[in-house]
Amino acid sequence: MAPPAIHAVNAYLYEKLPFDMEKSFAPITMVAQFPNVLVVHPSLGVKSIAELIAKAKAEPGKIDFATSGVGTTSHLCISLFMAMADIEMNHIPYKGTSQSLQDVITGRVPVMIDNLAPILPHIQSGALIAIGVSTAGPVALLPSVPPIGTVVKGYQASSWNALSVPAKTPRDIVTKLSGEANVILRKPEVIEKFRAVGSEAVGGTPEDVEKFFAEERVRWKRAVDVAKLQKL
Length: 232
Fold this sequence. Notes:
Blueprint: H1 4-9, E1 25-34, E2 36-40, H2 49-58, E3 64-67, H3 73-85, E4 90-93, H4 97-105, E5 111-115, H5 116-125, E6 129-133, E7 159-166, H6 171-185, H7 188-196, E8 200-201, H8 206-227
Parallel strand pairs: 3-4, 3-5
Antiparallel strand pairs: 1-7, 1-8, 2-5, 2-6
């Protein structure tokens, strides 16, 4: 079970990996997608994506944003957002979402994009304002929050988990595992469990996942490039 880092990101961040992200795995199915949400602290004085972009253009490099660390999906998501919106903000990296979120809640750092699940309670309490989601369409738990792509055309960048096996696994076993996994992911109680934590059960065939991986590699390579990260 692996996130974008394994299948679509780390090859662009590291000189050497102990596997080939395109050849080492046989995908089974997409398990779930985890929307990222763009939030701001009320003290920043913005309530929409357009207002954040306008403020950042008026004050280039002066607005701080928090991430869970250099090269993480939260960092790459907001780097891609800045590049596509043609704005500049100041990066404050932390060691994990819990640390970055704490400083955003207190207003020490006013902006972040990260997974919805840990941020949702603070949106619901009013401590943070959700101004955009990273998915192509609206998110069930935040139906009134627009996708970032409605303002920044073409923007989409979310976390996910995919189920895979070693590349040399016999095809009949891959097909069997995929079929069983999709039966489980279609169960109403499983769908509801995912939605309760801010994610969506996905499913799909091995061929669907291969196509998705190829698209995601293009997307995340662009994010790494615009973040101007040197390979480790």
